[in-house]
Amino acid sequence: MKPTTMTMAALTVGVLALVPITGATGNAETPLPMTAAAAVAPQDDDHAGEAADAHGDDDHADEAKEAHGDDDHAGEAKDAHGDDDHAGETEGAHGDEGGGDVVKLALEVAKEAGILLEQAELGALGESLSLPAEIRFDADRMANVTPKVSGVIDRLLVGEGDTVAYGDTLALITSRELAGLKAKWKISKTNEALAAQSLARLEGLWAQKITSEVNVQTARAEHESAKTESEAAETELHAVGIDHAGLEKIATAPDGNNANAYLTAPLAGTIVRRAATLGETVTAGDSSAKVLFTIVDDSVIWADIAVYKQDISRVRVGAPVALKSDAGDVIAQSTVAFVLPVIDEVSRTATARVIIDNSDRTLTPGQFVIADLSVGNAAEVLRVPQSAVQLVENRPSVFVPVDGGFAPRAVMVGTTAGGYVEIRSGLEEDDLFVSDGAFTLKAQLEKDAFGDGHGH
């Protein structure tokens, strides 16, 4: 019987299965028995054995397991997304105050830096009205210094721009007039003393009935006359600036010193004008007397606001006023002190005067500014100074004290007038906030954020 093709194929596979497998060392190993499944596998598929190795005893099976099981990057990924250093930073830095960072600053240091705290409170706030204003010297803090006696300027001790205190010597004038007044006073004091002695002697004689009453009365009249002349001479010296301490020094003054007249500062301030020249002859006591020095104290100044006639009825005494630069920056804040009850014939405006504390010298007399007034019917609202509100991360915010420093707190603002801003939410009455120095804190916050790589 002729074998079939299927029988021949099975025999061929069986013979091949009995061939010994030689290892890498050349030693024969025990023949591997074939399974029925292997016997019926297609005989000409070259990849059959390769597939078995790949999925049977393949060394990469364990390697793959390690790669996806004990892979070192698995823990690394967990750390990267679980214990990320920035995770805690984000939570702490943008905590409870409007998502902003804390500016680390002790309260004592903040106070020295000019950062002031106030409690939020209710205040009147009306409509905003912007008017032109001019900065002027306070007339009560300005002095023109003229000589009190005629003479020759012998020494000049100050110049323009110098700061002087009350009573400081400005110039020395050699005055024959003053020397004559002092001599007259000395003579009158001597005559008074002699008249007093004569009266005392005659009163003693009258008591003993040795002299007449007429002589005593005459002595009394002479004494009163001498006393009156002495008092008049003393008054003249007081009028030219000689006080009681100076009177006591007249009798013991060195030769020539009684002609020295010292021109002194009547108030503390700055010399803004000096018209005196060394060796110049000056006169006193009439309208031709020359102003030698002009002293001003610009620690307090006036802002005169030009109020148009249609707005006069809207401006009230005590209304908040903010003085602003042309760029809109708030320079100073105060209230309307009074409104003059006259209208200028040329400009047709009235004057509303504001008294400004200018101790930091930010305003200069002669400067023109914009006055932002709160006018009309004012309502009681929670308000803060306009400079206290700063944009932090594009949100209006005020800085509030927190543990270790200051943090921005987002607020909702309303009406702005007279240098104040209405706070509708985000801040409550009596809450502490930074009323002065908020811009400094914002600048420091942005500086710290830039250094940390966070944007604000």
Question: Could you walk me through the main structural features you see in this protein, from its secondary elements to its overall organization?
Answer:
The protein is an alpha+beta fold. The chain has four domains: 1-44, no CATH class; 45-83, no CATH class; 103-137 and 298-452, Elongation Factor Tu (Ef-tu), domain 3, CATH 2.40.30.170; 141-296, Beta Barrel (OB fold (Dihydrolipoamide Acetyltransferase, E2P)), CATH 2.40.50.100. Helices cover 31% and strands 31% of the residues. The chain has helices at residues 5-17, 36-39, 48-55, 60-69, 72-82, 85-93, 107-112, 176-207, 213-239, 244-250, 438-452; strands at 103-104, 116-119, 121-137, 142-145, 151-156, 163-164, 169-174, 260-264, 269-274, 281-282, 293-296, 300-308, 320-324, 330-339, 349-357, 368-385, 390-392, 395-402, 405-410, 412-417, 420-425, 432-436. A six-stranded antiparallel β-barrel has the order 3-12-15-14-13-16. A four-stranded antiparallel sheet has the order 1-19-18-17. A four-stranded antiparallel sheet has the order 4-11-9-6, with no helix packed on it. A hairpin with a 2-residue loop joins strand 20 (412-417) and strand 21 (420-425). Helix 8 (176-207) runs antiparallel to helix 9. The chain is elongated, with a radius of gyration of 51 Å. Mean pLDDT is 78; it is low at 1-96.
